[in-house]
Amino acid sequence: MDPVRNPYAPGAGQRPPELAGRDEQLDAFDVVLERVARGRPERSVVLTGLRGVGKTVLLNALRSAAVRAGWGTGKLEARPEQSLRRPLASALHQAVRELGPAGGAGEHALGVIRSFAQTPPVDAGGRGRSAPRLRDRWNPGITVPAVAGRADSGDVEIDLVELLSDLGGMASDTGRGVAVFIDEMQDLGPDDVSALCASAHEISQSGLPLIVVGAGLPHLPAVLSASKSYSERLFRYSRIDRLDRAAADAALVRPAAEEGAQYEADALAAMYAATGGYPYFVQAYGKAVWDRAPGSPITAGDVEVAAPEAEAELAVGFFGSRFERATPGEREYLRAMADVAAAAAEGEETEAVPTAEVAARLGRKPQSLSPARDALLKKGLVYSGERGLVAFTVPHFGRYLRDHS
Fold this sequence. Notes:
405 residues; alpha/beta; Rossmann fold; Arc Repressor Mutant, subunit A; 3 domains; 16 helices; 8 strands
């Protein structure tokens, strides 16, 4: 079939032609926007799930919904070892620009953002601020002067509460709202997580039209709860999982129909068996099958012929790139996890396995494997949602490891 007309999009964070199976989250967010706009109490939103389930795509779709509602929006991606100040200041600067001219209130908000962005942090002992190095003297691109005395204490929690309170007040004056979207939220540092929770708590108590929408790995709720106990009541948590059969079929059938192509029922069954309903895999297999199929309707035989090509693409771009980031010792730990998961009754690779069983598989003491496990946690290859358990952040990763060991 014509590869130029191939409708599928297996890209990182790239919106598929049919955003299937996410109507519940989109509808719920529309309600949040409407309630906040009317001054009704509402919680910020956190999306959690494995890699490849479409969290970033959904996050972008929610941002689009906020833009359509006339809100000011900004987005950032958290990174390990990176302070929240710079990326958040850029995101909020974008949100203020989207709200448009707001006179003195808008200039004040921009001045507070600049003050927040350019304030060096208090040192670890709380004794004072360290002077920023030349390469850290960042210009946020804001021309108005910094506002002295607002969001410039150097304590990120105090500063962020003041910053978001001022922006929420400005948005309220305009009759609109501000939404800040944070991807890979689990990678925020402990101080930044604490500050974000405290700020969202203050905003919710004040009834200001500002919300935070975060996305991250399944252990993100535990990260937030460890920082502030009230975070369990502060956010509306939504677990983003693989698609059910009807939604997975829709993600394949509807884009194909727009190009005048169809699937046979057996082909759709074969596609679901191969992809497990994970959105990234659905797009990867859809693209490979389209390119290999001689014509419409697409058959189960076409799926069988194209499957090795799809698997090879995933092995390099989805699984292999992550596996290459691990050291030899860490790879040994990952393979042991895969073996333990496979040994479990009806075990799925993504299910959590006991760290003690992983150690037993390697013939080691659990304590001796702590450095490897901690490194894998920091690299985002595994996560621990509960003490003593560990799981892959990538679906089907265990199967990949067993097939390529």
